[in-house]
Amino acid sequence: MVEHRPFGTALAHLTLLIGIAILAFPVYLAFVASTWDAATIANGKMPLTPGPLFLENYWRTLFVGTSGTTRQPVGGMLFNSFVMAMTIAIGKIVISLTSAFAVVYFRFPFRMTIFWLIFVTLMLPVEVRIYPTYKIVADLNMLDTYAGLTIPLIASATATLLFRQFFMTVPDELVEASKIDGAGPMKFFRDTLVPLSVTSVAAMFVIQFIYGWNQYLWPLLITTRDDMQTIVIGIKKMIVTQDALTEWQLAMATAVLAMLPPVLVVIVMQKLFVRGLVETEK
Amino acid sequence: MEKRAIFQGRLLPFALVAPQLAVTLVFFYWPASQAVWQSFLQEDAFGLSSEFVGFANYRDLFAKADYYRTIGTTAFFSALVTALSLSIALFLAVQADRQLKGGTAYRTLLIWPYAVAPAVAGVLWFFMFQPSLGLVSQGLRGLGFTWNPLLDSTDAMALVVMAATWKQVSYNFLFFLAGLQAIPKSVIEAAAIDGARPVRRFWTIVFPLLSPTTFYLFVVNVVYVFFDTFGIIDATTAGGPAKATETLVYKVYSDGRVGGDLGGSAAQSVILMVIVIALTAVQFRFIERKVQY
């Protein structure tokens, strides 16, 4: 602090606490709702403290499904979301590590053309070319498959760009030392470059995992079978806008389950996440 | 910037870029070019044949009041969410930038909404503002306000703006905090010694030094509101009531899926592509220039 101002400091603590409370309130409310019965919520008299049905509601949400038969249990959707997020994160990291390696450590024809071809994908999210992409996935018979769910979303350059920037900062002496030792390019890549990139890889993993987990429009279009649904899609389908049929306690339990994995990843890997985010995007 | 030490090899580098190049060509360039091509076609009512119609789809689009209204909605929505989330985030970041006890804890507790899916954010906010049982709606009714985002377009817009802002504040906070921490403390101390009060120091020194961050965030936020809010809108209002919350991306989706108008939907996609490319280009030029000093 530049000068000592106990009042200003107290005020800063207070505003931050208010900010935190406002951010957390919707989630707290969802959690409270997920521990009561449907009637208590439906008549609008839900208390502001957790109720007695925590275990029962989460059990029903995860393994039984809502309304007995009409909705799928969320357990399977969680699994699909997990597969999707992991495949996208790992897929992007693998193809980006190798392509960044090629672009930085080799001179080959069309090198810059290829780099720009990849780079341009940064600008256009899948949403703007949604139907043609859908059609191609359909033509390739990839609807309702994990491949269709993930591979089209792997086609973007964020990770490639980050790894390229990181490789640029790796000292040339390491390559020379590796060459003197008689190591080929792939040995250098495996034994030197990849181990050095561990932190960047982990940071990218956090960001891409969240990106994959939170996808909405893409899985909405390409999955038609209930057993291929992801949890982010599933939760929306539980909310029946017009009438009182929505089982809010189960919908809110689903919401809590849907945000738990990515939020945990961010909190646990906070340092890496912040580093990765600020470095890739600026 | 180029590396001095490189490897020899002709085929190996191509093999290394091949996976990414293949995925990019098949799932990015092919569909993007299809979108452009399709925007010049018109399908018949049964989708059996299509005919090249030049710019007719674009002309149709701009001939309808519908499209202008969607542009207006998107502009209003983007402006509001961007302004709110940037100013709230900046305010919180300035508070967190003071060397407070428990600074890391504050940061953790403020950044987690970044990880919440937009659709889930929409559902959370919808629950609070659900007309009959929502906690906040009841409070509003108690105060004498009628509130129904399912029927009233202003209420619907307010709901999506709140959910979208809630979700975006944490991202902006993170970048503002990083920006603030990069400002050398000596500059601020010098101003303090000269007798500048905190508010004046903020507006004359800190804020101008933050302008690259602010500008970057401005562009990113506009792109966020254009695309990532799809989940929020679909989960809360589904573009309604009476299309009051239909944004450009939502219209691409609903015209293509519900309306079955692929040519028109593709034309809209192309317009969106142009907007994003323009935004990104502006951002790069601006940041490149800023980086020089």
From TrEMBL, chain A:
SUPFAM superfamilies: MetI-like. It is found in: Cell inner membrane; Cell membrane. The chain crosses the membrane at residues 12-36, 82-106, 113-134, 146-167, 188-211, 248-269. One of its GO terms (cellular component) is plasma membrane. It is a multi-pass membrane protein. Pfam families: BPD_transp_1. Residues 78-269 form the ABC transmembrane type-1 domain. InterPro entries: MetI-like, MetI-like_sf. GO terms for biological process: transmembrane transport. Keywords: Cell inner membrane, Cell membrane, Membrane, Transmembrane, Transmembrane helix, Transport. The complex is composed of two ATP-binding proteins (UgpC), two transmembrane proteins (UgpA and UgpE) and a solute-binding protein (UgpB). Belongs to the binding-protein-dependent transport system permease family. PANTHER family: ABC TRANSPORTER PERMEASE PROTEIN MG189-RELATED-RELATED, SN-GLYCEROL-3-PHOSPHATE TRANSPORT SYSTEM PERMEASE PROTEIN UGPE. Part of the ABC transporter complex UgpBAEC involved in sn-glycerol-3-phosphate (G3P) import. Probably responsible for the translocation of the substrate across the membrane. This is sn-glycerol-3-phosphate transport system permease protein UgpE. It comes from Prosthecodimorpha hirschii.
Automatic annotation (TrEMBL), chain B:
GO terms for biological process: transmembrane transport. The keyword Membrane applies. It is a multi-pass membrane protein. Residues 71-283 form the ABC transmembrane type-1 domain. SUPFAM superfamilies: MetI-like (SSF161098). The chain crosses the membrane at residues 12-30, 75-94, 106-128, 156-180, 201-227, 266-287. The keyword Cell inner membrane applies. CDD domains: TM_PBP2 (cd06261). It is found in: Cell inner membrane; Cell membrane. GO terms for cellular component: plasma membrane. Keywords: Cell inner membrane, Cell membrane, Membrane, Transmembrane, Transmembrane helix, Transport. The complex is composed of two ATP-binding proteins (UgpC), two transmembrane proteins (UgpA and UgpE) and a solute-binding protein (UgpB). Part of the ABC transporter complex UgpBAEC involved in sn-glycerol-3-phosphate (G3P) import. Probably responsible for the translocation of the substrate across the membrane. Belongs to the binding-protein-dependent transport system permease family. This is sn-glycerol-3-phosphate transport system permease protein UgpA. The gene is ugpA.
